[in-house]
Design brief:
Layout: H1 5-29, H2 42-46, H3 49-61, E1 67-71, E2 74-78, E3 89-95, E4 104-107, E5 114-118, E6 126-135, E7 138-147
Antiparallel strand pairs: 1-2, 2-5, 3-4, 3-6, 6-7
Length: about 150
């Protein structure tokens, strides 16, 4: 049986469509291709975007920048020396882009100008750190990305 060019085009289109459908179905069913949002409450978090920008600008304009360093004991977050550490309140959020089960938050409780995140809670890889704190009724925000 001889195949003419019209039949060849139809067969090529059918093969191409089958090829594309195979990969679409495979990617949507595969657990390795998990396409989650960054946070569960993404839209709620977007409403506070301007507030976060203002808090970041407060930290930059008043020279209240944090220093984040890796130490043998863990991750050391150093607050500015000019702050009264007893009056600093807020939260530290650690976000792992590759696995949302490793994300965690904890409140800031300082006994000096340093805050230590224990080494046992951090796995090797990229971490996004968001420190949101309040000092004398002013909001401050610092965001850092590190590779641990």
């Amino acid at each position: 049986m001889k195949i003419n060019w019209g039949t060849g085009i139809v067969l090529a289109l059918a093969a191409f469509i089958s090829f594309i459908l195979f990969f679409v179905i495979r990617m949507s069913m595969d657990d390795k291709s998990n396409h989650d949002l960054v946070t569960e409450e993404y839209y709620k978090q977007e409403l506070t975007f301007q507030k976060d920008l203002d808090a970041q600008n407060n930290a930059i304009n008043t020279n209240n920048n944090l220093i984040v360093a890796k130490t043998p004991e863990g991750l050391l977050v150093t607050f500015p020396e000019n702050l009264e550490f007893e009056k600093v309140k807020g939260t530290v959020s650690l976000y792992r882009p590759s696995n949302k089960q490793l994300d965690f938050d904890f409140p800031i409780s300082l006994s000096n100008t340093n805050l230590l995140v224990p080494d046992k809670r951090l796995l090797d890889g990229r971490w996004d750190i968001k420190v949101s704190w309040n000092y004398k009724d002013e909001e401050f925000l610092s965001k850092k990305s590190i590779t641990y």
